[in-house]
Amino acid sequence: SQDKANEYFADGIQEEILTKLSRIGDLKVISRTSTQRFKSSSEDIAQIAKQLGVANILEGTVQKAGDQVRVNVQLIDAANDSHLWAERYDHQLIDIFAVESDIAAKIADALHAKLTGAERRAISSQPTTNTEAYQLYLKARHQWRNSFAPGYEQVRKYFERAIELDPSFAPAYVGLGGYHAFGAANAILPPAHWPAAETALQKALELDDTLAEAYHLLAGVEVYYKRDWPAAERAFLRGAELNPSDGEIRHHYGLCLVLFGRSEEGLSQIAQAKQLDPFFPGLHLFAGRILFFLRDYDGAIAYFATTLELEPTNAVAHEHFGDACERKGMFHDAITQWCAGLTLSGQPEQA
User: Fold this and answer.
1) 115 or 149, which is more confident?
2) What are the helix and strand counts (H, E) for the chain?
3) Which is more confidently placed, 286 or 201?
4) For residue 104, is pLDDT > 50?
5) pTM score > 0.70 for this model?
6) Over 70: is that where the pLDDT of 311 sits?
7) For a Cys staple, 115 with which of 71, 110, 119, 332, CB 3.0–4.6 Å?
8) Residues of the chain with CATH 1.25.40.10
């Protein structure tokens, strides 16, 4: 959508469709954090597919005017630029869940994917009938993705208002739990927010126990707050089972495995995550930190370099890149990276 006021809605619908598709075990679906890189790209379809490591590309547009929604979508075979399937949907907002489900089902059919009964139920689910609650939920997700700490409090307000409008809206509880958990884990919020995270996530799973993101966030609660690794691992594995294409779950699980001494398993999970989300800078940054922890400084440097190719202004990546260079005896390179990091973090005088 070119309409900035409705960008949250277009991006949200894209994410919802990708989430439905990623719950189909027979399909490999690349994460939104990587596909967004090509949102307005003029690159050739075949080149985009090659970079993402996929055979098919899903293109689409979303337009919204009041309660009317138009979705244009086409599935393209990247090898020969031919359309496998295309359709235009003109519906009222209340029908958007049916539209999302129909798109996911028809893409699966076009790609000859075999769906289990549970997968069919997952992609046809309708989490709320309240369109205002749904739009608030999409606004919260959009705010979370695009403003981080400066607009963090608004994220909570959106999720809480969505829950007020529909107390049975399970994904809104997941979002609220994520607000508390992510905030507490990253020192945006005080540690006292951990219990609120657990309460919201447990409520979400009471309403719908098939939400992979809820299990992923709950795993974080178990690791960082309750210090219960066996419970965390069960949550990670259940989340990955429900959403096999979720690179964030595998990346986070891999990180924890390494920290708990299961390095080989952890690196395997991270390699899978990289295939599912190849252009997510955070994944490469944490993979580099893991290899640094394992004293594989060459491997760490490679990951930090990739992080900075994807996100040149990442001050933390420069800092860790410098640390790895220092361990290798590459002192000039280390100083260069450290100075770049300090400058980007607003401390040029320290550089």
Assistant:
1) 115
2) 17, 3
3) 201
4) yes
5) yes
6) yes
7) 119
8) 276-351
Q: Locate CATH 3.40.50.11830 in the chain.
A: 4-123
Mean pLDDT of the chain, nearest integer: 92
CATH architecture of 4-123: 3-Layer(aba) Sandwich (3.40)
- pLDDT reading at 199 higher than 60: yes
**Token pair of 272 as six digits:** 């899978």
Q: Is the pLDDT of residue 203 over 70?
A: yes
- Fold classification of 276-351 is 1.25.40
d(CA 179, CA 173): 10
Residue 130's contacts (CB-CB under 8 Å, 6 or more residues apart) are 165, 166, 169
d(CA 120, CA 72): 23
d(CA 172, CA 154): 14
